[in-house]
Amino acid sequence: RLDAAGAVLVAKLSLGALAMGDVWFGGKTRNPWDPKEGSSGSSAGPAAAVAAGLVGFAVGTETLGSIVSPSTRCGCTGLRPTFGRVSRYGAMALAWSMDKIGPICRDIDDCAAVFNAIYGPDGRDGTVVKAPFDWNPNLDIRTLRIGYTKSLFDKAPDKGEEEWHAFDLATVETLRKLGLNLVPIELPDRPVDAMSLLLTCEAAAAFDDLTRSGRVDELTDQGPDAWPNIFRQGELIPAVEYIQANRARVLAMEDMRKLFSDIDLYVAPTFGGHNLTLTNLTGHPAVVVPNGFRKNGTPTSITFTGDLFREGKALAVARAYQEATDFNLRQPPLMAVEGSSRAG
Questions:
Q1: Rounded CA separation 109/316 (Å)
Q2: pLDDT per residue over 252-282, tens digit each?
Q3: Would you call 93 exposed, middle or buried from its count of C-beta atoms within 10 A (0-12, 13-18, 19+)?
């Protein structure tokens, strides 16, 4: 679809091994803002390449943060669409009920253009829903009902996160200066972290052969929280626990339906509370944009979460925020990567 729209494929980029982090069999994908650290993941290469100016945009995938996290680390603008928006045909499955594909770009207009080219049914992925992409860059965002997760913004920051917290508070003030009436909301109070075992189960099933054959031992990362041990754990989760987690997931989805009956979208700290896990489980779209730079030169981000199949409204508010700031316009400095004679 991108080819038909006139895009030119210039590279295939690295990702974390089996869609986790920035470590793969060939090494580590680095953050252009600070090559001493990785670019997060699993869409590590797409975010790093976009941030470094190597490509105009890239395509990433997300199951539980793999567009949001590398976009944050690399200072990109990322769109995680609603579950069932973009065909996953040909992509590696990790969790069939959570996998999503979306663009990683430099700004909101690019995200909207790329998404407009790739969304919609293709007859190959049965989960994709036929629904319009209602995108109006000139939408009067003052007519929207916008929530903000007040308790997450009011919460005292963890040690070392003071700068990020200050940027989040400044983001709220910027939105208010744009004439927006932000309505305090609270996210559903559900055992979201416990529901994440659904991802463990689905991933273990997707890579059952790899685990049972013993080839999972060949993966580079064998840490306690890496895929090899997650797959092994997944083989032992009782069916009762899996079903109970699904029941809780349905309740969370119903909670979110009620929440969006009063608002069009909401803004939240990117990694605040359980918002990232919750919205990946419920399938809601998210737009992540840079909202500051720490003293060490690395970027931070803020997230706008939209209602199901309503990416356009979240994109419109994020676009207005980008027009009022310049964080997305900044570029990483050229610097030598340690151990290399080439600039990174």
A1: 9
A2: 999 999 999 999 999 999 999 999 999 999 9
A3: middle
Q: How do residues 173-209 score in pLDDT, each as one tens digit?
A: 999 999 999 999 999 999 999 999 999 999 999 999 9
Residue found by looking up tokens 């680390």 in the block: 73
The whole-angstrom separation of Cα 332 and Cα 38 is 14
- Residue 30 sits at the vertex; the CA angle it makes with 197 and 224, to the nearest 5 degrees, is 30
Rounded-to-integer distance, Cα 6 and Cα 130, Å: 23
What count of residues does the chain have? 344
**Separation between Cα atoms, residue 62 and residue 319, nearest integer Å:** 22
pLDDT digits 0-9 by tens, 150-180: 999 999 999 999 999 999 999 999 999 999 9
Cα-based distances in Å from 305 to 83, 87, 174, 287, 297: 13, 21, 17, 6, 26
Radius of gyration of the chain (CA): 19
The strand pair at 146-149 and 30-31 is best described as: unpaired
Instruction: Supply the DSSP string of 118-162, one letter for each residue.
Output: HBB--SS-TT---------TT--GGGS-EEEEHHHHHSPPPTT-H
Please tell me the pTM assigned to this model: 0.95
